[in-house]
Amino acid sequence: MNSTPNLGPLPRRVNVDAEQVRRLVGEQFPQWAGLPVRPVAQGGWDNFTFHLGDGMVARLPSAAEYALAVEKEQRWLPALASRLPLPIPVPLAKGHPGAGYPFAWSVYPWLHGEPASPDRISDAVRFARDLAGFLAALQSIDATGGPQPGKHNWFRGATLRTYDAQAQRALTALDGHLDVDLAREIWKTALDTRWDGADSWFHGDIAPGNLLLDGGKLAAVIDFGTCGVGDPSCDIAIAWTLLTAEGRQAFRERLSIDEATWTRGRGWALWKTLVTCARTVTRPDDEAANARRVLGEIFSDYPTGN
Question: Please, what are the domains in the chain?
Answer without folding.
Answer: 18-111 (3.30.200.20), 115-301 (3.90.1200.10)
